Amino acid sequence: MKALILLILSFTNAYAQKTIKGTVINERTKEAVPFATVTFLNAKNGANADVNGVFTLKRTDNGAIDTLLFAAIGYTPLKLTVGEVIRSPEVFLQEDVKTLKEVNISDKRKELTIGSYNIGNHLYFRNNGGQLAKRFEMPATHQYLKEIWINRNLTYFPFRTETRFRIKIYKENPKTKGPGESICLDTIEVHDLNNREIKVDVTKHNISITSNPFFIGVETIPIPYNERYYIFRAGNGGARESTAYYEIFYQPFVSIGRPKDNEGWSLPLTPGSKWIKLDIVPAIKIVVN
User: What are the angstrom distances between the C-alpha of 20 and each of 55, 58, 243?
Assistant: First the structure.
C-alpha cells in the first residue's frame, strides 16, 4: 500500500510539471536528431528540437492526457503519451529506409525558383510597421523551402539601411483566403546592413509545404534600431510653410508594385489588426527543392 501511494505521488508530481523537456535521438547511431518536430496531437501546438535534438514544450491544461508526435525527415514518426516522455525524456526515432531514399533523390532534384521581382514600376512606399505578405503556390514536384529572397527599395529615402526583421510562413485562411495559421514555428530573424537583395537560407528549418496556397511574410520589428524619422513641411500655397513635423518609419523598405498575377496582404502594426488584401505586392521570391 505504501509503495502504491509513493507511485501515485510520483506520477502526480510528474504531471504537475509546467514544461516537458527531452532529447530526440537516432535509435541506431545514438546521435541527436536535429530540428525534429514535436507536436501535441490534441492541442495542435508544438516546437522544434534544436541542433542537439533538445526540445522544450509548455504543457497545456489538458497536456497530461495528450499525446506527442515526434517527426523528422528520414525517420518513422513516433507517438508517445506525455507521461511516457516525462518518465523517459530520451526519445529514440527509427530510420525510415524508404524515406531516406526519397530524401536522397529529393536532394539531387533540381531546385526551382518561384516568383519574380518583375513587379512593374516601383511604388512610393513608407513602412509604418506590421507585415507585408505575398501569396505562392508550391508545384507538385517540389515540397521544401530552401531560400527566401527579398528585394529592398534603397532609392527613395536618405536613411541608413541597417535592419532586423522576421520572416513568417503561413497557410491559407480558408475564410479570408489570406494568411492564416503559421507553418514554421521557428523564429526566422534576419539582420542585414546594406543589401538590395537579401537571400535567406531556411534549409535548417525543414519547412515542408504540404498545402497550397501559402504565404511568405516580412514582419517589421518595431524597435529603435529600425526607426527612421522623416521631416514633413505642409505648404499653404504661399511663400510661408507651416511648422515641420516628423513621422516615424521603419526599415526594411521592401520593394512593392502592382502585378496582375499575384496577391499582396498587409497586417498593420496596431494590436488586434487583421490581414488586409492589397492591390500591391512585396518583391519576394523563393527557391524550393
Answer: 8, 6, 58
In whole angstroms, give the CA distance from residue 60 to residue 272. 23
pLDDT at residue 241 tops 90: no
Q: What is the pTM of this model?
A: 0.60
- Amino acid (1-letter code) at residue 82: V
Give the integer Cα–Cα distance in Å for 30 and 161: 46
Question: What is the b/e burial string over 149-182, where b = at least 16 CB atoms within 10 angstroms of the residue's CB?
Answer: bbbbbeeebeeebebebebbbbbbeeeeebbbee
Q: How distant, in Å, are the alpha carbons of 119, 121, 153, 214 from that of 260? A: 9, 13, 21, 18
What pLDDT band is residue 106 in, cutting at 50, 70 and 90?
very low
**Residue 220 grid cell:** 517589421
Task: Name the more confident of 85 and 232.
Answer: 85
Residue 111 is classified by DSSP as P
Q: Where are the alpha helices (DSSP H) in the chain?
A: 2-15, 82-87, 97-108
Beta bridge partner(s), residue 188:
167
Helix/strand/coil for 94: coil
Task: Kindly compute the dihedral angle of the four CA atoms of residues 80, 84, 85, 89, in this order, to the nearest 10 degrees.
Answer: -130
Q: Which domains does the chain have, with CATH numbers?
A: 2-107 (2.60.40.1120), 112-288 (2.60.120)
Residue 127 and residue 107: Cα distance in Å, rounded? 38
